[in-house]
């Protein structure tokens, strides 16, 4: 059986006819397998959803209790129709998983979803899964993207706070995964004072804490006077009246895109922090080298750069060109 008959793109997303399911579908379908809780991968309205326990919890928190007609926790290899599926940690956000699809006869396919190889204390590390076909994201799929160690960026933030003790530091970070990652990095770097968080971050921060992720003391950034030098907020808050309560703040943003100086200037970012929950170019190519699949499928980003690398490595590769995915995580 050919790989492209086991799993192939449709208008609704990647579809497995042998199992009758889609992976991270773009629109409501009868059965969906979800890699993680970001809104460009996890949507409501499906008939049945299988995902990790954490991802199902996160979907309920973000979409309400009736986001799907039924749910099933991914727990070990599971038979669905004519294939076996299994979920493996992706290192992206809490509960994120790669999904392996193994037919009775034919190539094993692993769909990575979004993944990261850098250490992240807020989620399980990426698990290399041997496979015949590896579906890789390419969010930062160009050689220019080479990220520093995450703790160096936490040290950069703390150095700025020491240099400007009278200026509050407002750091933009997405609500699911990035905000908690930034907070945990700052704690790991030795910052013990209370950190203020925008109200839009509270529910997910509380959930992370409930799952054993130590974020230290968090206080609400809701009063007219916020008694904390470090404030974390979603990027959308920086375009609202909320930000006007801070006098002469240092504006920062945590993202892999901060490696591009023009992006930082466009956002008016004084303190760019290159912190990503995705693979950079060296990690992406190292993963492909480590797994050594017979074929690579590329999606979510700069597909052409990865395909060219695969050509030079004499590994067959093709773009999936899935339409409708955006990158909430960065």
Automatic annotation (TrEMBL):
Keyword Zinc: no
Molecular function as annotated in GO: exonuclease activity; ligase activity; RNA endonuclease activity
Coiled coil regions in record: none
Keywords in alphabetical order: Exonuclease, Hydrolase, Ligase, Nuclease
Domain of life of the organism encoding this protein: Bacteria
Keyword Ligase applies: yes
EC number: 3.1.-.-
Top enzyme class: hydrolase
InterPro entries in the cross-refs: MBL, RibonucZ/Hydroxyglut_hydro, Xnuc_lig_assoc
Signal peptide annotation: none
NCBIfam families for the chain: Xnuc_lig_assoc
This protein's name: Ligase-associated DNA damage response exonuclease
Organism in which the protein naturally occurs: Paracoccus aestuariivivens
